[in-house]
Design brief:
Number of strands: 25
Helix content: 25-40%
Distance between the termini: 10 Å
Shape: globular
Number of helices: 20
Bound molecules: 5-amino-5-deoxy-1-O-phosphono-D-mannitol
């Protein structure tokens, strides 16, 4: 939620900042702004409601000179998205400008105190309160800017990644973080700062991940200095990132989402690389091997995640219970963190998160950790907060996922969960050798089978035209295909704004069947593997009530095809791997319906890629 960028060096800052904002736009896109200090020391702040492109248009005739600046793209928390609430925010003195990602929880108390001292506020944001508070502490106690930031933050409750600059001081940016991500790019005589490495990578591969409660002082031409809020000096650790520019571009596709759907055969192979042996006879996960005893001694496994990652977790539960015979609970991290859950020291917690920054998942991990559970993370973004807070884990290695709707990260999460289930099951001897080998050799076939499904893209695009004006959708599946139904429904609603619900197919008759009319499209995942006969009965119940059935069937199926209004075939595979294949046509269906409806597929309304606030 919200993207922040900063630059200090020899280049003109504005183009660097604007390009950076474009890269971070997936994090929030309701308003954007820039603050620059020009040669005369003047502080120029430009901000507007809308996207980064609107900001660029707005700045066309403005003075955007200066080699230092900060910029922000917003996902509104406090106050509606408008010009006034857009960042950067300034102090009343107009000396300080600040950008912020996160939430200041005690902002109301601070605002009241500052109002009593004569401060006035233009916006409804918590950020304006914080910058005024820094200004207040700076002027009252006659402190330097870094000292004032430190002192102010020691009195702040909440989460933040901030960057502050000061009029007449074109040589310094002060940045800090707690709970929200912040990366500093280290170039030749220049520094970059950003919410993630994507705006930095085209200038330098060297980065410093700012730690929790650290304040970084970035002085032009000098080494970085880092101190904690409590004033403990830290040595910044420079790391090298592996991220190529081409991974951040659309590569000829009209949308990142479509590119990411089509990348799946390759990304899936990447998730398995070095983990599934070339002779296809065994699986190795170092995160498991190094902590074998934790998994073997686990009383139960608790999976913590949100959204699409939660759906992957549900598939993981089915596999872990079927193969490893360990009871698994799949929890919404947002519920878990507040409901006083029972956590045993011999619980293993598996935290799943594409971004590795989801606030609820991070907080749930911290809760489980403080209760002594062993934490295993499955994340995509290397070096993000969740992987840094786990005891062990493994990355999904799918490269940056930029479309807000998660696609390739989901299939990779399911793949890694499959590998984990196989590792534990093999070690516990709870899986037959034949089944173990069959799943491994089928896993190796999945990328090729996905390619086959992707060849149906045009056909699915044609089918999508029939449903452009549908108001509601139901998605049904049983067993492993039930989470696929949930995920298919989520994809459709988040990018096409069509109301969609996923259900276990057999639950229909307990209520949702009342919704079925000839107006109701029902997507049924009815593959051979996965309670085929039972699902056929469910389809009959829908047809008897004139529902329109779009089925996902195994290649060559005749029975379900005959009963369906529309049918999409996928290649045959073992039951636990069907989700990897069945989710691809559902991603494409949602994508094409959204495109037909002229929706902003990559940046759907009200959403943001990483939810770093609760
Ligand atoms: O980064 P995470 O995997 O922790 O994100 C969790 C959810 O916010 C995310 O999956 C969300 O539901 C996606 N927009 C779904 O496409």
């Amino acid at each position: 939620m919200c993207g922040i960028v900063g630059y200090i060096g020899n280049r003109q800052a504005c183009p660097v900042l604007v390009k950076g904002l474009h890269r971070l736009e997936y994090r929030g896109y309701d308003s954007a702004g820039v603050a620059l200090i020009n040669e005369k020391g003047e502080l120029n702040v430009y901000k507007t409601r809308g996207k980064v492109q609107d900001l660029e248009n707005y700045m066309e005739s403005k003075d955007v000179s200066g080699t230092i600046g900060i910029a922000h793209t917003r996902w509104a928390t406090h106050g509606e998205p408008n010009n006034v609430n857009a960042h950067p925010h300034c102090s009343n003195s107009e000396n300080l400008a600040m950008i912020h990602n996160g939430i200041i929880e005690n902002y109301a108390v601070l605002r009241e105190m500052l109002s009593r001292k004569g401060y006035t506020f233009k916006s409804s944001t918590d950020t304006e309160v914080l910058v005024q508070f820094i200004d207040y502490i700076r002027t009252t106690n006659k402190l330097s800017l870094p000292q004032a930031v430190q002192q102010a933050l020691s009195q702040v409750v909440g989460a933040y990644a901030i960057a502050v600059i000061e009029k007449n001081n074109p040589n310094q940016i002060v940045a800090a973080r707690k709970g929200s991500p912040l990366v500093i790019g280290v170039g030749e005589d220049e520094y970059f700062l950003a919410s993630d490495a994507t705006p930095i990578v085209e200038y330098t591969q060297k980065v410093v991940y700012v730690g929790e409660e650290e304040v970084v002082v970035i002085n032009r031409g000098e080494e970085l200095t880092v101190r904690t809020i409590a004033n403990v000096e830290k040595t910044p650790e420079v790391k090298t990132i592996e991220l190529s520019l081409s991974e951040l571009e659309k590569g000829g596709y009209p949308h990142f989402m479509l590119k990411e759907i089509f990348e799946q055969p390759r990304t899936l192979a990447n998730s398995m690389k070095g983990r599934v042996s070339l002779d296809k006879k065994h699986v190795v996960l170092s995160g498991f091997t190094n902590n074998k005893e934790k998994f073997l001694g686990a009383r139960r496994i608790i999976i913590l995640a949100c959204g699409t990652s939660w759906h992957a977790g549900l598939i993981g539960k089915y596999m872990l219970e079927e193969f490893a015979r360990i009871p698994v609970e799949v929890e919404y991290a947002s519920e878990f963190r507040y409901r006083k859950p029972v956590i045993y020291p011999d619980d293993v917690v598996v935290a799943i998160s594409q971004s590795g920054e989801t606030a609820d998942t991070l907080a749930a991990v911290e809760l489980a950790k403080s209760n002594g559970a062993f934490i295993f993370g499955i994340c995509n973004v290397v070096g993000a907060s969740i992987p840094r807070n786990t005891d062990s884990g493994c990355y999904t290695h799918v490269g940056p996922e930029i479309g807000v709707a998660s696609t390739k990260a989901f299939t990779a999460q399911v793949t890694v969960l499959t590998l984990l289930a196989l590792c534990i099951a093999k070690e516990k001897k709870t899986i037959e050798e034949e089944a173990y080998l069959e799943i491994i050799s089928e896993l190796a076939e999945i990328p090729r089978k996905m390619e086959m499904i992707l060849k149906n893209n045009d056909e699915i695009a044609t089918l999508s035209r029939v449903f452009t004006y549908a108001q509601n959708f139901i998605y049904l599946g049983r067993g492993y295909n039930y989470p696929v139904a949930l995920e298919g429904a989520l994809k459709l609603k988040e990018i096409s704004y069509i109301h969609a619900e996923g259900y276990p197919a057999a639950e229909m008759k307990h209520g949702p069947i009342a919704l079925i009319t000839s107006e109701m499209p029902v997507v049924v995942i009815a593959t051979h593997a996965g309670m085929y006969e039972k699902v056929i009965s469910n389809i009959q119940e829908i047809k008897a009530r004139k529902g329109r059935v779009i089925s996902i069937v195994t290649k060559g199926d005749k029975t379900v095809k005959k009963m369906s209004d529309f049918c999409i075939e996928i290649p045959e595979t073992v039951e636990c791997l069907v989700p990897l294949l069945a989710s691809v046509p559902l991603q494409l269906l949602a994508y094409h319906i959204a495109v037909q409806k002229c929706c902003d597929v990559d940046q759907p309304r009200n959403l943001a890629k990483s939810v770093t606030v609760e």
